[in-house]
Amino acid sequence: MLTLLVKGGRVINPAVQQDEICDILIENGKIKAVGANLAADGAEIYDASGLVVAPGFIDMHVHLRQPGQSEKETIASGTRAAAAGGITRIATMPNTKPVIDKAILVDGMKYKIEREGVVKVEIIGAISKKLEGQELSGMGGMAKAGAVAFSDDGRFVENSDFMRKAMEYASMFHKVIIDHCEEQNLVQGGQMHEGAVSNQLGLKGRPAVAEDIAVARDILLAEATGTPVHIAHISTKNAVDMVRCAKARGVQVTAEATPQHLILTDEALRTYDTRFKVNPPLRSDEHRAAVVEGLKDGTIDAIVTDHAPHEWEEKDQEFNLAPSGFVGLETSIGAVLTYLYHTDTVGLMTIVRAMSTAQAEILGLDAGIIAPGKDADLTVIDLDQEWSVDAAAFYSKGKASPFDEMIFKGKAAATIVNGNFVMKNGEVLR
Amino acid sequence: MVSIQGKSLLGLQGVPKEEIELILRVAKKMKSVVNSGNKKLPLLHGKSVVNMFWEPSTRTRGSFEMAAKYLGADVINFTPRGSSIQKGESFRDTLLTVTAMGVDAIVMRQKQEGSPWFARTCVDPIIINAGDGAHEHPTQGLLDLFTIQEVKGHLDGLKVVIVGDIDHGRVARSNIYGLQAMGADVHLAGPRTLLQPELESMGVTVHYDLDEALEGADVVNVLRIQRERQGIGFFPSAGEYNSLFGISEKRLEQAQKDVLVLHPGPMNRGIEIEPDACYGGHSSIQEQVKNGVSVRMAVLYLTIIGGDDVDITR
């Protein structure tokens, strides 16, 4: 019998509003007990004093790139990156080659994940076949095979009638639709946020209104159909306002934000550094501040990374030619703690909820809580550890990071999945 | 002592007044060389310049080549056609290859905005931006400044109106930065679809009524309207553009009597400019082309050799 006793950590457990120093006893991969002064004969003791112990962090917006683009990332490399960053469970987006749009592909992914995954991996299926926005994917079969949500991420579902049907159809399986909200015609050829900086750089803009229109449409469809929708990587002031209003009148809408949109602005683009190129784009400070406000007041439920690895050769190009997206799994905790927690902007309970509990709720997972009987997935955090980001040393194959060379305060000290350490002191153990 | 030796010229944004003045001063001397019987002034003898033009260009490339040759530099022209670019070589590797041949300066035109910034992170030679997409075209900006100064005697306090497709215009941006550094009052005019009001954050005044913009103008810089833009939402037709924003002698009555008209070329006569305006007494359009060579001689000399002046006695 394998037992692990996590001793003396500060347990932050948003599901029950718990913030206290106590022990967690783990047996056979499950949490056995949570309380003060627990003891167990022969158990491995992990001294967590001075550290935060949280329910395993989740990242519901990750691109693992397999199948089809294993030069960018693989299930093996991506889940090791997650472990290194303190993330115990990720959900992988279906814009792979081929697109995950039917049950047999979900089965194939599960087979591969079981053998190569270092952390837990959930599968998000496509909304439309081949992400073409025309025909419904095999949602029923995928749901049965274990897909947790549906998304055409990377592309906005343009056709409103199709989106309506997709939302209605997915609701039969109690699965949420996740939408990448940028109205295509308005962002065609756009390279960065449209505004003063894009005007000065001569780069074609992706205006905020493109996201606003898309979010408005999705909220209205969710309201009209009475089905849930999840707004991916929200990044504009109006979109946050609209989600806030919609929630107040009971629409089933949830939203996620990324560290980059919570922390960085389009000012970072001034040197045409492709490390900062992403969709939706880094926006002006007015939008960034609105996203932070949305996180603080609960309008925004989740913090995700949109981990989107690319090869170095692809990012090492002229700005317009470089692909959008960058990695995030190994920097999200550090970035969020440094810029939101240590600046007294967002409290720890809110952060842990957004990075764990809320995501489990959105996806309907039995996770995100520390309680007897639950899987022993834990993220252990040293709030005060200072470290500098070294993208070249990432476990991920993607080395482009907007946070490279930054000094962070706060880091995952250990990642525990099913009672096993998959990362300890920065070293991935599998 | 002001010097730009060893510096790349990526754009005019952030270039201080003293450096612009230095370039204009040396360009004036270079012009006297160009105007003389013997144009050869071997100040760059033993130096090499490569023209890398990924986009078609006649006047800018010819102007740079002429400038380098008048100064006695060796020049090679590099075009994507027939080069390893077509074989899939990356931009970085192409730059490394050219650099390994021992060039002192790379003059580059690229469709992608910001490419010269990327190039500077890849290789050591001086990078001269000859136009990066819709961003900047600093030597065009400098030659416009030079032409205005030559005609008006100064730049500070002048009301300069730039008319046309500002959003896609690299000439516009370089003009704005250069003119502002020199103390001119910059106004922009064009259709709302090609001129975003956010540009006012750069300290300029934006107009959608041409007559209002032209009132009291000392200089009008007319930008080329790309025919491809008509009918796809930017404006309905060339004819309508002409009626709203075309520059004619009649329209120029709003401006100062001695208003100077510039156009970076190539012109669409009958669209953004009428023949009476481009060939009339207010126009210095042909002089701009000549000044382009002088200004590029100054830029090549000052970045490669340096100093705060030039000795043109042979």
How would you describe this structure to a colleague?
The complex is a heterodimer of chains A (430) and B (314). Chain A has two domains: 104 residues, Urease, subunit C, domain 1 (Roll); 307 residues, Metal-dependent hydrolases (TIM Barrel, Alpha-Beta Barrel). Helices cover 30% and strands 24% of the residues of chain A. Chain A is built from 13 helices and 19 strands. In chain A, β18 and β19 form a beta hairpin. In chain A, α2 packs parallel to α3, α4 crosses α7 and α8 packs parallel to α10. Chain A is globular and about 65 Å long. Chain A starts with a strand and ends with a strand. The mean pLDDT of chain A is 97. Chain B is an alpha/beta fold and 314 residues long. Helices cover 36% and strands 14% of the residues of chain B. Chain B is built from ten helices and nine strands. The longest helix of chain B has 20 residues. Chain B starts with 16 loop residues before the first helix and ends in a 10-residue tail after the last helix. The chains are: A alpha/beta (430), B alpha/beta (314). Chains A and B meet through α6 of A and α4 of B.
